[in-house]
């Protein structure tokens, strides 16, 4: 059930691919100002990545199931806010909360795998969890397309709300199958109790908030009820009587959850957990990761590596990283337990994961771009379906990789997988104007997808084979963070390399007047531009192949201590994705 939740949350990462134009229109952003929609994407990424280490540490302290349930509740709340969003701040806030909740599922689920399965049977579950996480990249756009064919974009997030709450209830009901933590045992020892006051306040807050967001026309036109929507000052929705009532209900709900003996949400208990998990360190690390994310995610890769303020974001990230390192050395209970990542395979897994992400993003972005450049210039759907062949092979490879590490050293499996991925990219550099339509293209796509899949579970196993049991959650979080940061850096660096090749090829193309001889349409000139675009994608594929080879070499060198025999004698080895 936790794996299903991971797959569903992962799909939400890609669900905006088709819905983004409608989402922009829904919050008042013109469709021709696509750059203003960047926070919708980067807000989700920021929540997903920046909060992962803190949530992973909480999973180590509080237990896996409570974190899974809370993450799904936060994801559902973010879905609700997104569905009701009326401007950019509200939709970005909703997407941020969705990212926090969706990202929090990953380390808790992977640590739960380590709790539930003995070491000798853990490889396949690791592969399955890694596989379902990647399946989200296939399901997300398809899910969005199906919903958009029958309804508008808000329905996508309304479905997310319902599914998130159902999954939270299902995981909570099935919690008895997992080893309980100390906190969970204490909770189970107490008698079931329904907090009617807290539930009433929560429903009141949600109802008032829905009215603020939706602003039903029938109420606004009414002479009496319409006064609830008239601002006290300015034009903000929260400066209205109904807005003030919503804020008051929220304050009462928070106060009740803080002071009540058995509240709907043990807010005081969660605050204690945040303090114990090193909230200060988590905020410093989040600032560092956020700076990196904003520097790359807000840039237009067609014209720049960083956004105009990207260098300042990176400066802030460096300052925050230095402060975090200083804090970890001085804190009594730091976010990252001292020595948790001191062993070579542990920190080496983060490095390998970084290069895996840098190579993987080239496949996710540039395979569809290649299809658009060549045979599908005016149709996005067939171009996206080309990538599906790659993505369907990836989860198959993930399960196979999880099975192989039972008998083959993880370093060898990872290296073989990444060399297969590199081979797939090299084959892509041989693609021409019509290769995408030919069966031979499937060789590169399937080889690359299987290769990346093979590397997922071994990297995770190598990391957690050399981390302590009480750090599995935070270690799982860091391996995900490393791969996501690798993706962000990779797409900017590889796109820059590709554009340099494109501009170089473009210089050799004669002016359109010379080639077309005054004709309004010139197939020859168009073909020359397409050839320059192919050269650009070939350069990206070569760069991605290089990243894959680096990952393979690092895995062989840094994972040489990890052997199946060593894995089998450890009592608890976790996984990350």
TrEMBL record:
Principal localization reads membrane
Origin organism is Nocardioides hwasunensis
Q: What is this protein called?
A: MFS transporter
Which stretches are transmembrane?
37-55, 67-86, 92-114, 126-149, 155-175, 196-218, 238-259, 279-299, 311-328, 349-371, 383-405, 412-431, 443-466, 478-499, 539-559
Coiled coil location: none
Topological category with respect to the lipid bilayer: Multi-pass membrane protein
Q: Where is the Major facilitator superfamily (MFS) profile domain?
A: 1-440
Q: Which UniProt keywords apply?
A: Membrane, Transmembrane, Transmembrane helix, Transport
């Amino acid at each position: 059930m936790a794996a299903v939740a991971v797959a569903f949350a992962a799909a939400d990462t890609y669900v905006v691919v088709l819905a983004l134009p409608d989402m922009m229109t829904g919050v008042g952003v013109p469709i021709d100002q696509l750059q203003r929609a960047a926070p919708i994407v980067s807000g989700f990424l920021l929540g997903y990545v920046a909060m992962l280490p803190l949530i992973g540490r909480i999973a180590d302290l509080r237990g896996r199931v409570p974190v899974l349930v809370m993450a799904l509740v936060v994801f559902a709340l973010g879905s609700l806010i997104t569905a009701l969003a009326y401007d950019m701040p509200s939709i970005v806030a909703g997407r941020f909360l969705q990212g926090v909740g969706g990202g929090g599922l990953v380390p808790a689920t992977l640590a739960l795998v380590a709790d539930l399965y003995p070491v000798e049977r853990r490889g396949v579950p690791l592969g399955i969890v890694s596989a379902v996480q990647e399946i989200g990249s296939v399901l997300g756009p398809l899910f969005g397309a199906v919903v958009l064919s029958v309804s508008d974009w808000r329905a996508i997030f309304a479905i997310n709300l319902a599914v998130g709450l159902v999954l939270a209830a299902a995981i909570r009901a099935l919690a008895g199958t997992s080893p309980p933590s100390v906190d969970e045992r204490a909770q189970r020892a107490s008698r079931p109790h329904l907090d009617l006051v807290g539930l009433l306040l929560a429903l009141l807050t949600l109802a008032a908030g829905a009215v603020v967001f939706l602003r039903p026309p029938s109420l606004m036109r009414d002479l009496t009820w319409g006064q609830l929507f008239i601002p006290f000052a300015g034009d903000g929705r929260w400066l209205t009587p109904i807005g003030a009532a919503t804020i008051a209900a929220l304050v009462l709900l928070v106060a009740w959850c803080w002071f009540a003996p058995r509240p709907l949400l043990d807010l005081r208990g969660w605050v204690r957990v945040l303090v114990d998990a090193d909230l200060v360190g988590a905020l410093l690390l989040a600032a560092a990761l956020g700076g990196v994310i904003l520097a790359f995610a807000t840039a237009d890769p067609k014209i720049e590596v960083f956004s105009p303020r990207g260098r300042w974001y990176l400066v802030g990230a460096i300052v925050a990283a230095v402060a975090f390192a200083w804090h970890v050395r001085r804190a009594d209970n730091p976010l990252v337990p001292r020595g948790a990542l001191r062993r070579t395979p542990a920190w080496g897994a983060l490095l390998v994961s970084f290069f895996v992400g840098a190579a993987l993003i080239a496949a996710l972005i540039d395979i569809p771009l290649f299809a658009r450049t060549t045979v599908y210039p005016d149709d996005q759907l067939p171009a996206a379906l080309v990538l599906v062949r790659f993505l369907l092979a990836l989860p198959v490879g993930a399960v196979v990789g999880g099975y192989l590490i039972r008998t083959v050293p993880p370093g060898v499996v990872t290296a073989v997988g990444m060399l297969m991925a590199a081979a797939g990219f090299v084959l892509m550099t041989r693609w021409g104007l019509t290769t995408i339509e030919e069966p031979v293209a499937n060789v590169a796509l399937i080889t690359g997808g299987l290769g990346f899949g093979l590397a997922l579970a071994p990297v995770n196993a190598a990391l957690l084979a050399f981390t302590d049991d009480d750090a599995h959650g935070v270690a799982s979080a860091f391996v995900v963070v490393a791969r996501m940061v690798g993706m962000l850096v990779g797409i900017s660096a590889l796109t820059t390399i590709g554009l340099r090749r494109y501009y170089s090829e473009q210089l050799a193309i004669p002016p359109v007047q010379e080639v077309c001889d005054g004709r309004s349409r010139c197939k020859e000139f168009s073909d020359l531009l397409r050839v320059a675009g192919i050269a650009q994608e070939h350069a990206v594929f070569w760069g991605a192949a290089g990243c894959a080879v680096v990952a393979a070499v690092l895995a062989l060198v840094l994972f040489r201590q990890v052997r199946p025999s060593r894995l089998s004698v450890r009592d608890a080895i976790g996984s990350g994705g």
